[in-house]
Each structure stands twice: as structure tokens, then as C-alpha cells.
Amino acid sequence: MTHSATRPCPDSIDPAELIGQVRPVGEPELRLMGISALTGAATSDGTSSGLGNDTDFALLNALRVWSDAVLVGAETARKENYFGVKVSEQQRREREAAGQQPVPPIVVVSRSLDFDTDTQLITDTAVAPVFTVPNAALDGGDIAARADAIRRAGGEILPVGGDSLAAVVGALRERGHARIVCEGGPSVNTQLVEQDLVDVFHYTISPLAVQPSAVRLFGESDETCERRFELEAVHCTSDSLLFCRYRSGRDSSPQRTR
């Protein structure tokens, strides 16, 4: 484990240092990114952006550029007013040279497809956003009509063979999306952990004590599970944000490369 907390904390940190070592392009790796206040709240004034700083924002962007797909729950995409991933021309060239698509899509997990087609997720993006939905749900008239509306607006529908996150991740991997970064929300985070799909967890702790803390990083669950993660690195910025990187305990000695 590496850390910088015992030295004076810098104003900012290179996101590559926070990301650490990664598997080669084409090898499956799922990274979960989350931030919470000291009180456990996952939002401040309704969004997660109020908890972070420039380094946290840079880490989010760097993980998006690293990824083949950015996974997010429908409610989070709505509340955070998502738009498409922004990739510079140089980053596009680097991704293509490495064998990746020029720009990764935002992949929205939904069971109802109840989504505004005028959102900037569809209107402000270089590639079509992908909406996953259980294949069986498309038999319903309302959901099928919403799927058609999303397609007409420029989005893509990805039917999956079940309503589990494992089915969603499997469908993405079949499309060649080996590297996946997940940005929440609580229900999606909970299922990823329950189904043992997370390889690396980037957990940022804000120094803010936010009340009430109704929205939390992980949601309620009827399942019982215990997953062990190993602390791999800790860094801190001068404004007291703590950046922790945990790796799944089932992957304690992976073959990794930068």
C-alpha cells in the first residue's frame, strides 16, 4: 500500500496516480467510483458534485477515458443531468492506438426506460448513450413505446437476459466493453458488490458533515453478503479530501500493467 497522508497534502493529485495500475486493454476490469461525506451522505444539495473538488472531478474524467463504457443508474443520470463523455483529440488517438473505441458510451441501467429524450445525455454526446433493459420488459406496451422513442431520439437500447447487474455487465462484455467504470447510484452500487463484480473501488471521503444523509452511497438490500477489499493506496489533498483505492480481496495478486 502507498500513501501520502503523513506528508504535507498537495493542492491536487495526478489522476493517473489515483488510478494506479490497470489491466491491459481487452482484459475485464470493473471499477466503482463513489464519494461520501463524513456522515455517509452521498450528495450535498442534491448532487454528488457538491462533495468533491477538482482532483475528484479529474479522477472521474480520467476513469471515463480509461474505460470502454461508463455505467450509471437511470435515477443518478437524471438527477446529475448527465451528458456524454468528453474526450480530447489526443485521447481519441491514444484510445484508438490501444485498440479502444474513440469515445466510451454512457450506459444507463433501467427497468422502465422512463427517460426524457430531450436530455443532454442524448443531445450533447459524441456517441449514442446505451440504455439497458431486461429483455422481458420490452414485451410491455409502455416500455416498448419508450424504447422506440429513445431510439428515434438517437439513443440505443440494449436488451439483457435478466434484471441483474451481472446480466448487464455480461452483455457489455459481449460487446467488447472489457473496462467498465460505474458511477452509481446506490442501488447499482449495492448490486455490484452483492454480485461480486467490483475489481477496484475508488472511494473518496469528503471532510463535509452533511445532514440529513438520506441518500447514501449504497442502498438497502435484502441479501446478505460480505466482500473483502484490500486498501491499496491512500492520498489526501490540502482541502482534506481523502482518496482511497481498494482492490477486491479475490484479486490480491493480479497481473497488472500501467
TrEMBL record:
Domain of life: Bacteria
SUPFAM superfamilies from the UniProt entry: Dihydrofolate reductase-like
Pathway it works in: Cofactor biosynthesis; riboflavin biosynthesis
Listed transmembrane segments: none
Bacterial bifunctional deaminase-reductase C-terminal domain: residues covered: 41-223
Keyword tags: NADP, Oxidoreductase
NCBIfam families: PRK14059.1-1
Protein name (record): 5-amino-6-(5-phosphoribosylamino)uracil reductase
